[in-house]
Specification:
- By secondary structure, the protein is mostly helical.
- It has six helices and no strands.
- The protein starts with a helix and ends in a 9-residue tail after the last helix.
Length: 137
C-alpha cells in the first residue's frame, strides 16, 4: 500500500494530461467535430482556441510537482464545463462518437480530482486559508 498511492497519483496525473493534450490537436486544427461542438454552443472559433489554450496550461501544470493542485483545479473546472454542455446542449454522443468525448471528460475529472486531493498539502498557505475547510489538508 505504501507504493500504491504514489503510483496511482502519478498515473492519474499522466492520464489526465495525455487525454487533454491528445484532444488539443482536434481543437487547434479545426477538426469537423470540434468546430461543430463550438458552433453549437456559440463559441466558435474563439472558444475552441481559448479552451484549447487552457487545457494546454492545465496539462503542463498537472505534471509539475509543485503546481499539481493548480493544474488539477483548472482541469476540473474545464471538464465540469464540458460535461455540463454535453448534458444540457450537445448530448452525450456528438456526431456518432459513442460518447467518447463525454467519457474523456469524466476520466479527466476523476483523475484530476484525485490529483488535487493528493496534492492539497502543496497549496501555498496564503491560498489554502481562503479555501473551504474540507480542502485544507
Amino acid at each position: 500500500m505504501k507504493y500504491f498511492q504514489p503510483v496511482l497519483y502519478w498515473g492519474a496525473r499522466i492520464m489526465a494530461a495525455i487525454i487533454m493534450l491528445q484532444t488539443l490537436y482536434f481543437k487547434f486544427s479545426g477538426s469537423e467535430e470540434s468546430v461543430y461542438i463550438f458552433t453549437t454552443i456559440g463559441m466558435e472559433p474563439w472558444g475552441r482556441i481559448g479552451v484549447g489554450v487552457f487545457e494546454l496550461i492545465a496539462s503542463i501544470l498537472i505534471l509539475i510537482p509543485t503546481m499539481v493542485w493548480l493544474g488539477s483545479a483548472l482541469a476540473i473546472g474545464l471538464m465540469v464545463g464540458a460535461m455540463g454542455l454535453h448534458v444540457t446542449i450537445l448530448g452525450i454522443e456528438v456526431l456518432g462518437d459513442g460518447g467518447q468525448l463525454f467519457i474523456y471528460a469524466v476520466v479527466v475529472t476523476l483523475c484530476s480530482s484525485y490529483a488535487l486531493w493528493y496534492s492539497l498539502g502543496s497549496i501555498p498557505e496564503f491560498i489554502k486559508g481562503k479555501l473551504p475547510l474540507f480542502l485544507q489538508k
